[in-house]
Amino acid sequence: MHLSLVKRDALSDKSDMAWGSDIFHIMLNWVLPERCPCCGAITPAGGPFCVSCWQNLEFLGPPWCRGCAAPFEFDRGDDAYCASCIAHPPRHDGIRAAVKYDDVSAQVVLRLKYGGKIGLARVIARQLVRHLPDDHANLIITPVPLHWTRMWSRTFNQSALIGQELAALSGIPFVPDILVRHKRTPTMRGLDVRRRKKAVGGAFAVNPKWQGRVKGLRLMLIDDVFTTGATSDGCVSVLKRNGASWVQIFCWARALRGTNHQPAFISRDA
Asked: What is the 3-state secondary structure (H, E, C) of 174-229?
């Protein structure tokens, strides 16, 4: 399949509403000061974050595990795996997160996801550009999908907005509907890994119009937050069963093993 034939389809008819909202916020920026997406403080020109929050964000990058990108204390080489990935090889082909998941980074997701600050999708995408693979051949950006009921109530998919912005910054094709979510899952806050996996079991499928077209594709799967990995693992499993050759997860923030951290007010329903 030639990627030149892939069109950047609209997310839904409601994407026009999101676009109109974005234009409105851009106009407001002419008269209102920029505010930090973490704490809401007025920020100086030239950056989206205040100095304090910027210093408190824990940015992620090499050296890390080749399998799951868990940080290493020292460089073990590009092909090194952590003990967990050696014992239980992941289905995905790596996780690329901008920052560690904690109370500071969670505020960005809250304001995007529930506060309607859709411009934060571009802030997130700019922090993910540094993790893009060098080889863009046969590469497509696609989001973790929302169930139609949540799409209807929220009017946008935050993961899709991040994917759109990352595509605009990188030139990599964006396809919003390779996966569909035909089962509405319960809120996962407080659920352990086993119950989360059970909740998302059978929730995802390849869109009928993409049946037979996924084989051989390399996919960047976009999500807002990676905690236990149950949701993204369900997506990756479906994509790999349908022939995707490589699936890497891209997200704003990820929980690190051993921290056991669950920021307040985050609902893992996406």
From this structure: ECCCCEEECCCCCCCCCCCHHHHHHHHCCCEEECHHHCCCCCCCEEEEEEEEECCC
CA distances (Å), origin 36, targets 46, 127, 236? 12, 15, 33
Alpha-carbon 219 to chain mean position = 13
Start-to-end CA span in the chain (Å): 30
And the tokens for 74? 């020292």
Among 214, 219, 213, CA closest to 140: 219
pLDDT tens-digit readout, 61-108: 999 998 888 899 999 988 899 998 999 899 999 999 999 999 999 999
Q: What is the pLDDT of residue 190?
A: 57
What pLDDT, on a 0 to 100 scale, did the predictor assign at position 180? 93
Q: In what order do the strands lie in the sheet with 246-254?
A: 95-100, 246-254, 218-226, 139-143
Tokens coding 110: 């809250």
The region that residue 94 occupies, defined by phi over 0 for left and psi between -120 and 50 for alpha, beta otherwise, is left
**In terms of residues, how long is the chain?**
270
Check: pTM over 0.90? Answer yes or no: no
pLDDT at 264: 44
As a whole number of angstroms, the distance between CA 41 and CA 54 comes to: 12
**From residue 28, how far is each of 14, 32, 34, 142 by CA, in Å?**
22, 6, 10, 30
CA 114-102-266 angle, to 5 degrees, is: 30
